[in-house]
Amino acid sequence: MKILVCDDDQNIVNRINTILKHISNERKLIFDITTYNLGDKVCKDKNKYDIAFIDIEMPGINGLSVTKYVKKVNPNAIIFIVTSFQSYLDDAMALNVFRYLSKPIDKNRFIKNMNVAIDLFQKSTQRIFIETYDECFNVFTRDILYVTIDNRKACIVTNGEKILTKQPFDYWKKHLAGYDYFVQSHYSYLVNLKNVTRALLPERLNSYVLKVAGLKEAKKVNEVTKEERKRLVSAIKNLPFTFVSLAPFTEAVVTSGGISLKNLKPTGESRLQSGLYFVGETIDVDALTGGFNLQLAYATGVCAARDILKEI
Known about the structure:
alpha/beta, Rossmann fold, CATH 2.40.50.40, 4 domains, 5-stranded parallel β-sheet, 5-stranded antiparallel β-sheet, 12 strands
C-alpha cells in the first residue's frame, strides 16, 4: 500500500510516520511511505498513491492543489486533509476527501479513521483476470464501469479504455455475480453500481440513503419498483439526520456567538469598557467557511490596532 505524507512541519510528518508504523505492526501490513515537506515535489512525483495525508497551508503549491494532482494520478486515492485551518473545509470536501484531521494529531482518532480507510481500500482493490486476443492482465473491479457486448464479443469498459475479452459475456455474468455491486440492468449490460451511485452521491452516504429509503443494497436495479424509486427520491431530497452527541471542541469547524455588535464601536472597542477591544471570532459574526473567518480576523485586528496606535 503506497502512502504519501506531505506537510511542511517535520514534527507532524514524524508524528504521522510513527502512528503509521504502529498500525502497520498491529495489522501486519506493509506500508510504502513517501514523505515531502513541499507540495511542489509531490506534483513532480509520478507515483500512484493509495492513501495520502496532506497539509493545506504550505509554501509554494498548497494542499488543495496537491490533492487535485494526487486525485488526477489516482482518482481512487483516499485523501486525509491534515491542517489547523478549518476554513478550507468546504474546498477540501468538494474534492471528495476522505477525512479532515485537525492538528495537533490525536493518535486514537487517527488510528480509528486510518483503519476505516484501510478496510475501504482493501474492499475496493479486488482484481479480476482478463484475457484478450493479444495479452493477459489484471484490472481493479472498482475501475470497471460496465460490461457489454460489442460485435458479438464481451467488452469491459473502464474509465480509460474498452477491452474486448476472449471470455464470453455469460462468463462475466457468472464471474461478477460474486460482487454485490455488479447488476445486470439489461440482457447485454452488467453495470458497476459503485460508479453509478458515486456520480449521484458520495460513496459513504449511499448505504445510509438506501437504508432510509428501505432498499437493500444488493437489490438489482431492474427489480426496483416504482414505489421504491419514489422512496429513494424522497430520501435524497429530505434526508433526515439525528444528532447523537457533540464532538470535542478541538474538532469544531464553525463557532457561533460572541460579543454583540451593539456593544462595540466600529473600531472593535467596547462601548461599555473603554480601552477593551474585541476582534475576530470573539465577535458575534458567523462567516462562511472558505477564508471569510480569516478575513474577518485580519480586518477587525487591523481596525483595532490602528485605533489603539492613536492613543499611544
